[in-house]
Write a structure and sequence with these properties.
The complex is a heterodimer of chains A (about 240) and B (about 230). Chain A is mainly α and about 240 residues long. Helix content of chain A is about 80%, strand content about 0%. In chain A, helix 4 runs antiparallel to helix 5, helix 4 runs antiparallel to helix 7 and helix 5 packs antiparallel against helix 6. Chain A is globular. Chain B has about 230 residues and is mainly alpha-helical. In chain B, helix 1 packs across helix 5. Chains A and B meet through helix 5 and helix 6 of A and helix 6, helix 7 and helix 8 of B. Chain B: Its main location: membrane. Chain B: It is found in: Cell inner membrane.
């Protein structure tokens, strides 16, 4: 695997890989986002109790899943960056962090918008809400640490260390707040075959989760391309790229 | 430093150096304690002086105040050594850096955490705490404050190379403090209902054990980034 991965340690190859992957990700994201949203928001049946307001799960659940998924990918990239000293992986950490933070904000805002009519409050101090909020703090910590350093090389490594410390703490935080106070409903789609959600709602939800994952991929790829170009702006290949237009 | 010293000697040398320095500038020890006292004084003024209300909130207030005053001292753990260059020498020396770091973190706890724990019985009088709750508060603080020092030192090490690291450090560290706070206050709550709270103490102890092993490694690699 190392032999196969090794060429991508070079910034130019990584940039080309981003360019190759980007069209596939974009097409996949656009198609699945349109399908998922139209299916979920227009065609899926309304809930017998919550009526149409339940439809926010087609945005809320995917963004919440992806906010955690993005954090784990960020932490994996950080481990790769520190263990094998790959600078591209550092750049990937920096590229993912704001996307994950945005997903966390979307999950929090849509959750609040749903909570107001359903629970009667924009915000309650419940375990999942609290751990999602703390996740946002962790993202913001990584971001502000990165931007506090003048020297971007140490900035990348410091951000990597912090995201690894965060990923060790995340399960502890999650279970501690779970134990502390819970109002949020339990997981409905973890048990696939005996799912507590009807297939007519489950399938559009899955399409939306895939679409959001693709979206995170697209934005991360674009950001990673930018980071690579900025970090390597004095190299000949970047100059050739720019002069070619 | 001669490489023929044992690890224990190194540990003792670093530890006693930090303590000696702190005792020569006593403000470093006294100021966090004063801060602790003032924060605790502010709460009855802000929420009202009813004894029952205070007794209900006291453990939480004491814990939040302890958390904040630990943060105050954290910036100093590596800052002076970083400024006079001795941190670089410690990193370059033949001795394992995590051991040095362990000594420094424990010295920080001895200077800030331990005096706070010792002062709590006095504050308990101010806040109308009974003996049962006081015991629980003392026990959780005794296990919890070293944990705060370990976790906080990671943030201090990451930001030591920055000019204005102080506020950034609190942003990085406070979210990581949340589990400690939750388990500690849950132990105190349980004790207020006269139930056994050994479970929460055991979890705090387990977190301390993990932090004592893992945090020095994270702190050392963070220090290497900050110094390079």
């Amino acid at each position: 695997m190392w032999k196969w991965l090794h060429p991508y340690a070079k910034a130019e190859r990584a940039y080309q890989l981003c360019n190759t992957l980007l069209p596939y990700f974009t097409v996949f994201t656009v198609v699945s986002l349109v399908v998922g949203w139209v299916w979920g928001l227009a065609y899926a049946p309304a809930d017998y109790q919550q009526k149409d307001s339940y439809r926010i799960i087609f945005i809320h659940v995917p963004s919440a899943i992806l906010s955690m998924g993005a954090y784990s990918s960020m932490a994996i990239a950080a481990i790769v960056a520190l263990v094998w000293q790959l600078r591209n992986a550092e750049l990937a950490v920096v590229a993912i962090a704001p996307v994950g933070a945005a997903m966390t904000v979307i999950a929090l805002v849509t959750g609040a918008a749903w909570g107001k009519p359903m629970w009667g409050a924009w915000w309650v101090w419940d375990a999942r809400l609290t751990s999602e909020l703390i996740l946002l703090f962790l993202y913001l910590g990584v971001l502000s640490l990165y931007h506090a350093f003048e020297d971007k090389k140490s900035a990348g490594r410091a951000a990597c260390i912090l995201s690894i410390v965060g990923v060790i703490n995340l399960p502890i935080i999650h279970f501690s707040v779970e134990w502390w106070n819970t109002l949020h409903q339990g997981a409905t789609i973890t048990k696939f075959d005996t799912s507590a959600i009807d297939p007519s709602m489950l399938w559009p939800l899955f399409v939306n989760i895939a679409a959001f994952a693709g979206f995170v991929g697209v934005v991360t790829l674009i950001r990673l391309k930018n980071e690579i170009l900025q970090r390597e702006k004095h190299r000949p290949w970047v100059r050739n790229l720019v002069s070619r237009g | 430093m001669n490489a023929s010293h044992s690890y224990l000697q190194l540990f003792y040398a670093v530890y006693s150096k930090d303590l000696t320095l702190a005792f020569r500038q006593r403000a470093e020890i006294v100021n966090p304690l004063l801060f602790f006292l003032i924060v605790i004084t502010l709460f009855p003024l802000a929420i009202g002086p009813e004894p029952a209300l205070l007794a209900r909130m006291a453990p939480g207030i004491i814990w939040v105040a302890a958390l904040l005053s630990t943060m105050l001292g954290l910036d100093k753990v590596f800052r002076d050594d970083f400024n006079d260059g001795s941190l670089e020498q410690l990193i370059a020396s033949a001795y394992p850096l995590p051991l040095t770091v362990l000594a420094k973190v424990l010295a920080h706890w001895t200077i800030t955490g331990l005096p706070m724990v010792l002062m709590v019985p006095v504050f308990a009088l101010l806040m109308n705490l009974d003996t049962q709750l006081l015991t629980a508060t003392l026990l959780t603080l005794l296990i919890g404050t070293p944990l705060l020092s370990f976790i906080g030192a990671i943030g201090a090490a990451l930001t030591v190379g920055l000019q204005k690291g102080g506020i950034l450090m609190s942003l990085l560290v406070l979210p990581l403090y949340i589990p400690v706070l939750i388990f500690a206050t849950s132990a105190i709550d349980t004790s207020s209902m006269s139930l056994a709270y050994g479970g929460q103490l055991a979890i705090l102890g387990a977190m301390l054990a993990v932090a004592a092993v893992m945090a020095p490694l994270a702190i050392s690699s963070a220090l290497k980034v900050s110094v390079s």
